[in-house]
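User: Good morning. I'm curious how zinc ion would be positioned relative to this chain. Could you predict the structure with it bound?
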Amino acid sequence: MKLFDPSLAFYKGNTHAHTTDSDGRATPEECMRQYKAAGYDFLAITDHWHVHGEGNYHGMLIVPGAEYDFPFPAQTLHLVCLFPDEKLSAVIRRDCTHREVIRLVNAAGGVAIAAHPAWSLNTTEFLCSLAGVDIAEVYNTMSDEPYNAPRGNAESLLDVAAANGKLYRLAAADDAHFYQGEQCVSYIMVQAEALTVPAILGALRQGRFYASQGPRFKNIEVSGREIFVETSPVSRITFISNAFWIDSRSAQGENLTQRRYTARRDEAYVRIQITDRDGKKAWSNPIALL
Ligand SMILES: [Zn+2]
Ligand SMILES: [Zn+2]
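Assistant: Good morning! Here's the predicted structure, ligand included:
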């Protein structure tokens, strides 16, 4: 089974950005200008508690979205929500609980993403309790150094959640505020039938995407416990799972472009992570194994 359809295009998008409509420094127009100039196909402007509607900026699709935050003792929850339209902006209010927001977003055909879970100090138990949230940011540019405390990377936190049964799909996003050049770094590649809001949201709900800062997944094929991956030239290809020690887990070299891996019986899931010579990464979604 091929996880990506060779006949469909990939679209590059950032699902998380802030502007002068909340605490960002760039105007929405300047935000769109910079992402369009960097070659993005779609962008969601997700100001805090402020929905930006659908738009088209010189061919770059604007997906409706907003970010909502909920305080808890010793942690916080930030949900980046993408919508099919702007209707929910009148329904989601500051007195809504996170469960109400998740239910409303899913009922409307939208997608709720757990933003920067490491930055948010989320516990595994909390992440495992978020029914209706299937995507989490494995990497958030703004939450990492040199912009912030080094908590942009949520790989190991989400691995613990996965080992405990919650297989989040993995997104990467900038959370751009236009403070220190954190825009246009981390993104998702979405395989959709068309560059439209319903097609992008549908692909996100079905998991037809991967997260990246540069390297590309060209093909991932799964046959039983065999996984075959083809990539752009990279320096490392690693298969990551709930198993503690696998001696063939990681391959290093110059210009690696493919690898085959046979999962052991005790591996409940496997995800693939690739790193290029500049240290830029891409992350596949976890593949559940029977
Ligand atoms: Zn946030
Ligand atoms: Zn944010």
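The pocket of zinc ion (ligand 1) is lined by residues 67, 78, 115-116 (CB under 6 Å). The helical segments are 28-37, 98-107, 124-128, 155-163, 197-206.
Let me know if you'd like a different ligand tried.
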